[in-house]
Structure prediction request, 407 residues.
Amino acid sequence: MSSDSSRRRWLKYSAAVGGLLTGCTPNTNQPPGQEEDVVNLLGRVVSKYGERSPDQKITRLPGTNKHLEASSSLTPLAQTMGIITPSALHFERHHAGIPTLQEAGYELLLHGLVAEPLTFTLNDLRSFPSASQINFVECSGNSGREWSAKVSADVQTGFGLASCSEWTGVKLSSLLQEAGLKPAGKWVIAEGADACRMHRSIPIDKALKDILVAYGQNGEALRPEQGYPLRLIVPGWEGNVCVKWLRQLKVTAEPLASREETSKYTDMMPNGKARQYTFDMEAKSVITAPSGGQRILKRGYVEITGLAWTGKGRIDAVEITTDSGKSWQRAKLQEPRLANAFTRFRFDWMWDGLATQIASRAVDETGYVQPSRDSLLAVRGANSHYHFNGIKVWQVGAEGSVTHVEA
Ligand SMILES: Nc1nc2c(c(=O)[nH]1)N[C@H]1C(S)=C(S)[C@@H](COP(=O)(O)O)O[C@H]1N2
Ligand SMILES: [Mo]
Prediction:
């Protein structure tokens, strides 16, 4: 359709609906796909389960995996909005693939140092008081590449093993109380129903404090990838402890020292000893826009935005530098700021069009300040694979390119 005839038709249409359009400026130059004869077609009918618009294409990115089943996928954090990760984009980490499980017949066993061993069906769990909380899950291997000089080039590959959802379930403390926790019980060992039988030991204080046995994610049942029908959510702790496809909880006097707590998820220190049972994820942040691989289109106003989080409670402040670290200014923090959840930050920047470096640094409610990469390496050495939380610096080029800074 020529633009002339489309304009004529538009004018006819707007004359017909007359007063309805008062206050709107008729757009006589309709973009493709919005010409009158397209807009006036009746739309698609309702559906039982919604899909996003087909022109929306952001996806998870497969991690670098040696085996298909022992794999991971990364959340596109630079394209998600606010603080909630859509369930379909929540990162995945599976050591033995996603088991096919159904709610019918599924049972959770709670035994060990309790007065009465119990099994719970999903309906049994729903008969307990429920709780919902917004928490991030971050794999302690997230940003692992930042330990080496070849740091990651963009947010998704460098930070995508972190996501934030609203989780619903039963407090683990309610179940322990129901079974009658014995005083000798100091650890809870969680076991997954996947082929690797993931095992993690959790100190009893944490188990009684804020752990959720979760069956819900963002308003519906957990996704199979996130542990359907049941998983642990251990607020603020490394993702590995959040055992998915949870089938068994055993109360013990000692930790298990499983593979996941010895050869994996421990950090080799410069003196040759390993840090072990380092559960808390420390304060961390990243500018998601403008970030690596993106381009600033024009000088002048640029919104700097990103995410900050800490496993030690709330984020108190996020500071931004736009002059390569010479000065730091406070970003605006989206409210409410929730404990052990993503906090969205925003900062109004007038870019003068010159090359510079930008970065964010988070301060948590304990006063802890996110360290620079250099000061983190000075303490932890370069033999670590896990628990990287150094400041991420982006290089802005005079032509508006945004790239990572090789160490
Ligand atoms: N049973 C079981 N639980 C598991 C895993 C697993 O492979 N099997 N992976 C763990 C790891 S290493 C992480 S980081 C988180 C990832 O949770 P997500 O896939 O929901 O993002 O689940 C943890 N729980
Ligand atoms: Mo992980």
The pocket of MTE (ligand 1) is lined by residues 90-95, 137, 139, 163, 192, 194, 196, 198, 225-226, 239-240, 242-245 (CB under 6 Å). The chain is about 15% helix and 30% strand.
